[in-house]
Amino acid sequence: MRVTFLGVRGSVPTPGAAFLRYGGNTACVALAHDGAPPSLVLDGGTGIRMLDAHLGGAPFRGTVALSHLHWDHVHGLPFCGAALAPGNCVRVLVPSPDGDPVATLERGFSPPHFPVTPRDMGQWSYERIVEGVRELEGFSVTAREVPHKGGQTFGFRVEAGGAVLAYLTDHAPQALGPGEDGLGLLHESALELCAGADLLVHDAQFTAAEFPAVSYLGHAAAEYALGLAEAAGAKRLALFHHAPDRTDDDVDALLASLSSSGCSLLAASEGLTIDL
Ligand SMILES: [Zn+2]
Ligand SMILES: [Zn+2]
User: Fold this and answer.
1) Pairing state of beta strands 236-240 and 264-267?
2) 84 φ/ψ angles, rounded to the nearest 5 degrees
3) Which ligand is nearest to the CA of 217?
4) Bond into 244 cis (ω within 30)
5) What is the C-alpha to C-alpha distance for residues 81 and 35, in angstroms, rounded to an integer?
6) Using one digit for the tens of pLDDT, what is the confidence trace for 75-134?
7) What is the pLDDT of residues 218-245, one digit of tens each?
8) Domain at 2-275, CATH from 3.40.50.300, 2.70.40.10, 3.60.15.10, 3.40.1360.10
9) What is the 203 CA–ligand 1 centroid distance (Å)?
10) Distance 220 CA to ligand 1 centre (A)
11) DSSP-based helix, strand, coil % in the chain, nearest 5
């Protein structure tokens, strides 16, 4: 499985010289089988526009699974050239507690909020995400609801060829209580998704020092992400969904402040590819 980070920023895109190394596009991760083009994309933040470069001009034929519908996870969808190119075949999986994925997506993706609707995206099809395990583009994908703030949110566990990726962007761990360190108790769904993962991609918008003042915003501290990775036996942790005010140097400093004996650490950057 090849994992390519197309957007790693949280909340809002961050252009500017201080954000060039980690990148300013919002959440999007592309997955490919070995030797094949990306066919499963997690989230449609502004980073999804970078998908074009990884397809060599070919149209996108695959699935986009949306963890949730906050702007930073859907904003790029209607601007992905490869997903709109002739010959595309795009299925979008949408959290939709009401059961109608088009109607749910349309609430933020129609006039006056946006000039077109999901029905105007050519041949795209839409399906509702529900909890459970299903096959998507040859990947085995487990979806579980995880606590966040403001709408149904899923975490994903993706398996192929013996490799396991866990993707928990936008996760607020305090749903079960603050825990001893005040960063949140480990959620059972998060533990299940991350168990033994080769790579855990996790919300690291805040730090433990920042957390008391910002925990209500629905995100995690990097220290919580590390604690979860260690408890679940994940081999690598990629800090993800970097706060929009956290410059490249700040991300470096955050990464340097963490240490683990059992889990290797990195900070996700736009364009980074990892083979699992
Ligand atoms: Zn987000
Ligand atoms: Zn969110």
Assistant:
1) parallel
2) -110, -10
3) 2
4) no
5) 22
6) 999 999 999 999 999 999 999 999 999 999 999 999 999 999 999 998 999 999 999 999
7) 999 999 999 999 999 999 999 999 999 9
8) 3.60.15.10
9) 8
10) 11
11) 25, 30, 45
